[in-house]
Amino acid sequence: MMTMIKEAIDVIKKNDRGGFTVPTNRLYPHQWNWDSGFTALGISSLDKSRAWQELVMLINAQWTNGMVPHIIFHEKNPNYFPGPDQWQKNAESQTSCHSQPPVLASIIWQMVSRGTEYDKMKACTLFNSIMAYHRWFFLARDPDKEGCISIIHPWESGRDNCPDWDIGLNNIKIPKNLEQYFRKDTSYVDKLERPTDDHYDRFMTILKYGRDCNWDNVKMHNEGPFLAIDPGVNFILLRANKDLYKLANYLGYTESINEIRNWIKILEQGCQKMWNKDINAFTSFDKRTNTYCDAITNASFLCFYAGVGSNKQKSYMIDHCNRILNNCNYGMPSLDPMHKCFESKRYWRGPIWSIMNYMIAVGLEDINELCLANKIKNDTIQLVKKNGMAEYFDPVTGIGLGGRDFSWTAAIHLELLKDEIDINSKHNFLNNKNVIN
Ligand code: DGY
Description:
Blueprint: H1 2-14, E1 31-32, H2 33-43, H3 48-59, E2 71-72, H4 84-87, H5 104-113, H6 117-141, E3 150-151, H7 154-157, H8 166-170, H9 185-188, H10 197-212, H11 217-223, E4 228-229, H12 231-251, H13 257-270, E5 275-276, E6 281-282, E7 285-286, E8 291-292, H14 303-306, H15 311-326, H16 354-366, H17 370-387, E9 392-393, E10 400-401, H18 407-416, H19 423-431
Antiparallel strand pairs: 1-2, 3-4, 4-7, 5-6, 7-8, 9-10
Helix pairs in contact: 1-18, 2-3, 2-5, 2-18, 3-6, 5-6, 5-12, 6-12, 12-13, 16-17, 17-18
Bound molecules: (2R)-2,3-dihydroxypropanoic acid.
(2R)-2,3-dihydroxypropanoic acid binds near residues 70 and 185.
C-alpha cells in the first residue's frame, strides 16, 4: 500500500505549479475550483501550509460579486480550450465566468476540525470569502427564491456530459454563426472517453451566449440557453453550509450564524424538488421544460452527504445503491448501468470518479451504512492500486480512463489512507522539488 502513497505524492508534486496544482498536465493545465479543494484536502496530511496556499490561490481569484470561478488561468497555455479569450471579449479577467460545485467550506472544515491553531488562523482569513461565495449562489443562481440552486452551464456542475443535461442540451439551438473552434482535449484522450462533438457544440453555444451578454446572471438565469437543477451542486452546497455552520461556531463568527442557518433551511426544503416520484430517486430537473431526468447518477447518492431525505426516501436510495453496485464490478458508476445511456468509458456517462466516491462514502458513514461505505472506499483504493491515478475508471473492467497522473485521484487516495502516511512520506513531499512533466 505504501507504494501507492508514494505514487500519489509524486503525482501531486508533478502537478504543482508553484502554489497551485493543475489537475493534470496538458489536458487541464490551469487551476480548477473543486479540483483544488480536493487536492488541498489530500495535501493537508503532508504539508498544511501548502494545502492552505492551494485554497488561498483559488480564493484570490474570487470575483467582487462573491463568485469563485471554475477555472483560474494563472498563465497562458495553448494546450487548453476554451482559454480566457473565449470566456470574455477583452479577456481582462483571467478566469472562466461561472462556478463549480462549492466543496470549499467542507474541505476547510475538515482541515480545521482535525488541525491546530494554525489551521484555525488560516480558516479565519478565508471565512468571509466563503460566506460571500455561498451568498452568491443564492443570489445569482436562485434569484426567484425557489429554494434550489440552478446551473447555467453543464460545466458548472463539474459533471459536464452526464445524462442529467441531455434534455436541456438537446433543446439548445446551435447558432449558424457559432465560430469554428478546435477541441484540444481529444488530442490527449481517446474521443470515446470524452464528451461528443455534438455536446461540445452545445457547450460552446452557451459559452457564446454568456460572453455576448457579458455573463449577466439575471439574463443567463431568465433567458439563457440552459438552466437546470443539479443534485450535485445542491447537495454539495447544503453539506457545505452545514460545515460552514460548524466552522462559524468553532471560530466564533456568531454574526454569520443566522444567515447560514437560513441557507440550510432553504436548501433542506428546496432539495425535495429533486425527488423524482416516477423512479423514486433524487434526480436532476430541467428548468426550461420543467422535466425530470430519468437517470440515477452518482450525484443522486450525495443526498446522504447532504443529510437529505425522509426515511422512506433514504430507503429507496439505499435500494438503488445496492442494485447499482450489484450491477457492476466496481462502484460507484457515474450512471446507473441499467440506464439506456450508460457508457462504461465515456466521462460522466458511466465511469467511476474518486472524489464522488469519497463524498458518497462520507454520507453513507453519516447514516451508518458502513458496509456500503466500506465497499465504495475499498473499490476507490483498489482501482488506484491496480490501474494508477487515472482521472476516472471503467466500472466494468476497472481500467483507468481520461487524463493520467490526476491530482484529485491522488489526493483522495491520500485522504482515504491518511492514517498510513508516515514521516518519510511527509519528508518526501516537503523536500523534493517538483519537476514539471
Ligand atoms: C473541460 O474542459 O473538460 C472541463 O470539464 C470544463 O471545466
